[in-house]
Task: inverse folding
């Protein structure tokens, strides 16, 4: 005859095991960002590939183009204020990167090398052999990787506060810890790849974040040394999301690159906060202007007081 207390203990033990099993899924879903609302883009199109679909917008004509790559959890609509200022800048393309916005891709991994292959396949579908890449945050990290691995495809490069340098990314709390290489990242990635998680949390961006940042750090720094495209780096000394203290290291790692400091008021989201500046530097690069002279070629008022090219004698350089 079973004792009543034994049944209670068994039920309690089963309940505890269920909680232990479910809790990591709940925590990961709770701390991982939701996909934002899709911003409408009237002239957006969809390009289909064997493993997915890429949403994009294209305007202008020419054999070369400006190509804009958004940051983590972004979409092509993040460039709208910049895009509206590009009518005289030739052919240009903006896209939802695979796994973001309306670009759906059947994959358990979004590492920078894999994303680079997908972006290059997309460029091939448009018949673009050479482009000027403009990337912000994660999109800047991806743009740099593309330039390193496909040097023949990238004519010029603009990196707006790229996030890939070792220790640069500063997500707070547990989510920030999960993005660092190690056992926590490995365990979280395993959970995010399970069928249970992907079905219960289809709008969460755990896999994109966890696998994408696995390419950050030493591997990304090594890739910088292989970039041959003339490169312009732009960073704000008010950037709390991706440490501006790594800007100099990024500049030094990319041969012949130029760094432009922005003021403390600008922050991390440069395309949203300074669209007129991003549009102007993009157009100047598209015209063939050297990154070394972009700052001095900008229209009056585009650069604020105290902003300008690092080590330039023509403008004051912010002191980080």
Result:
């Amino acid at each position: 005859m079973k004792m009543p207390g034994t049944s209670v203990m068994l039920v309690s033990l089963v309940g505890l095991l269920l909680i232990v099993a479910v809790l990591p899924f709940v925590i990961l879903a709770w701390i991982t960002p939701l996909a934002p609302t899709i911003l409408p883009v009237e002239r957006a199109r969809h390009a289909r590939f064997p493993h997915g679909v890429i949403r994009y917008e294209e305007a202008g004509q020419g054999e070369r183009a400006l190509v804009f790559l958004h940051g983590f959890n972004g979409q092509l609509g993040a460039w709208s204020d910049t895009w509206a200022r590009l009518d005289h800048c030739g052919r240009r393309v903006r896209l939802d990167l695979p796994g973001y916005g309306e670009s759906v891709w059947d994959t358990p991994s979004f590492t920078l090398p894999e994303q680079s292959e997908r972006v290059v396949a997309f460029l091939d579908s448009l018949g673009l052999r050479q482009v000027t890449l403009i990337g912000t945050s994660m999109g800047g990290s991806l743009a740099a990787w593309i330039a390193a691995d496909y040097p023949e495809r990238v004519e010029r490069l603009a990196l707006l506060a790229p996030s890939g340098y070792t220790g640069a990314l500063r997500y707070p709390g547990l989510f920030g810890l999960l993005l660092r290489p190690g056992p926590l990242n490995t365990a979280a990635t395993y959970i995010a790849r399970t069928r249970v998680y992907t079905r219960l949390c289809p709008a969460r961006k755990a896999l994109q974040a966890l696998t994408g940042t696995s390419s950050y750090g030493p591997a990304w720094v090594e890739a910088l040394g292989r970039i041959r495209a003339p490169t312009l780096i732009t960073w704000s000394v008010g950037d709390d999301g991706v440490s501006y203290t790594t800007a100099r290291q990024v500049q030094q790692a990319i041969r012949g690159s130029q760094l432009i400091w922005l003021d403390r008021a600008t922050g991390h989201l440069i395309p949203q906060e300074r669209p007129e500046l991003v549009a102007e530097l993009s157009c100047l690069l598209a015209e063939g202007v050297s990154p070394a002279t972009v700052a001095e070629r900008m229209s009056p008022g585009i650069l604020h007081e105290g902003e300008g090219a690092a080590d330039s004698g023509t403008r004051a350089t912010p002191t980080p």
